[in-house]
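Training component of the fellowship. As part of building independent skills, the fellow (R.M.) carried out the full modelling exercise for a liganded target. The chosen ligand was 2-(butylsulfanyl)adenosine. The inputs are recorded below so that the supervisory panel can assess the work.
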Amino acid sequence: MVKPSNIITAELEKLRSEIRRHNELYYQKDKPEISDAEYDRLFDRLLEIEAEFPEMVTEDSPSQTVGADRIEKFAAVDHRIPMLSLQKVTSFEQFLDFDRRVRDGLAVEAEIQYTTEPKLDGLAVELVYRRGKFVLGSTRGDGSTGENITENLTTLSSIPASLSSQTTKRYPLLEIRGEVVIHKKDFAQFNQQLIEIGQEPMANPRNGAAGSLRQLDSNITKERPLVFYAYGISDILLDSITKQSEAAALLRSENFRLPEPAAVLNDPEAINRQFDELTKSRDALDFEIDGMVIKVNSFDQQKQLGRISRAPRWAVAWKFEAELAETTLEDVEFSVGRTGVVTPVAILEPVKVGGVMVSRASLHNEDELQSLGVAVGDRVVIRRAGDVIPEVVRLAGKSKPRSNTIKFPAECPSCQTEIRRLEGEAAYRCSNSACPAQLEGKLSYFASKAGMDIDGMGGKIASQLIERGLISSLADLYFLTHDQLLTLDLMADKRAQKLLAAIDRSRSSSLPKIIYALGIDGVGETVARLVAETFATLDSLMEASLEQLVDIDGIGEVLAESINSYFATEDNRVLLRRMREGGVLFPHFTKSYSGDLFSGKRFVITGTLSQSRTYFKNLIESHGGKVSSSISTKIDFLLCGQKAGSKLEKARKLDVEIIEEEDFLARIG
Ligand code: IVH
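Fellow's submitted model of the complex:
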């Protein structure tokens, strides 16, 4: 083993005390002395040394403390096996279709054995037990990478700190998955606590659980009534366990709570009855549920069935019917979206539906509004189905005396331009391209996670930037200065710095993300990726003919026309030119196929490269690879620029393949 030199030991100590001091200045005193980037540099160096000399990691190192020390964000955790979502069905017929697909997939006619259990409405987490000890807990995140919330999860008494010696011997590594919830009976009290400490009460137990788990101080989490329910193990190739029901038995024997009532059933009719019973007993359960999960019991069969993109073929969530509630219509607002569509929104006396307090609901469009025939003061029935925006479904009672039924306005509520309803369309649109409400919608969409991913650019900031004339086109974002940001409400130095850093990072967004962010009619994430893969650069896409676009598999005439006319419009060409002037890189995009060049390969990037790290990270990811921050034996390649330091040395020691930029670019062609 390499021994740390005295110099390293001294550096480590110095780094730790410096970081602690900056933490205190930032979090407790609100008086930071260094920029985020400088802080990150210190922190990265600490992580680097600790990765090299793991025996030097102490419990109180800033790298190990989630709590008050580093509140900023949680470290990323890659799930060894992705955490998937579930396909949904909402009727027995649809369940039978699922069952048919399962039997077709397995080429069996006989009945399949399924397990059934409630679908808990909480926050999905993964617990890793290594040699019997709980060592890592994470949120689901995007399914492949979540957040490290170990510290917080250790405060839950329903999560055993260690497993029995028998289980430890059989499974030195055990990854357990489940859901963290707040029991219904604890929820009201929990909200009361929040109100007492001056915080907003949570809308439902699920939000309560999520908010509590993502606290940066685990002492807060400890006070929250959180309960973990285990519903499975991630790796279905455990030697002697061959069924979901056996995995459940193992978990139960290790003192985990499991979602009940659970059953093992072969007959679809029995599953139907089980669903009816669960629907009836729903209210009496300790926790909120939103349906029943049905899983193929045999792990062998699960493996044979595999998965379709993000969901397994061997399980399904049978969701409860959408919930209805009655309330009073207090007002109607007309909101203008990014495409100029004007949508009537019902402002309601707050009412609980499906476990969530609802105070706004969609009235869709003019036709809908007319056929509902509602007036302010009327009683209305609203419906909420899962995460879908709630909607008004019918008039339940007219108010007395009754005001006039609601009429659609003739002008845009934001810019007062006359609004028009195009032939064959249900929606009214504001056609003013400079309409502030549209720009606000465009800006939020542009900055969203799937787009340029500009953290901190929420609706409130967007509307202020527009109101104060700091932004009149999306490209203006790239010319904002620190001083300009400081003029906004609630914008302090640190926050402005962070927002500018986020804007800066977005300059190296990948081409599909940029195309998505532009908000071209009909172009979502999939189409954006498709055109980026086809044309590779923005310039070729801009020059693409209608024929070339229609030729792409998956793009029809309407969509091709929409893309073509977007890039033919002078205003949009000016926008893209100004984005380039503002430093947006529009990187070349290379198609990634399954069986990618770097599929499953892990990279670390070091040294100075010709473009930003994000640029190279995007390239690696678009070829199926992953990027980590420190060198270990798990790393396949070190992408190495000029002036590389200790990472290069370490890569050499550990025999990690080193690729220089030129070589890397040559490999991906
Ligand atoms: S099994 C391969 N069982 O539902 C997916 N999931 O849509 C295996 N969930 O976020 C999931 N209760 O956390 C399973 N009894 C249960 C569940 C359950 C809730 C959540 C899960 C995930 C979501 C999937």
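The panel noted the following from the submitted structure. The longest strand covers residues 323-336. Confidence is low (pLDDT under 50) at residues 66-72.
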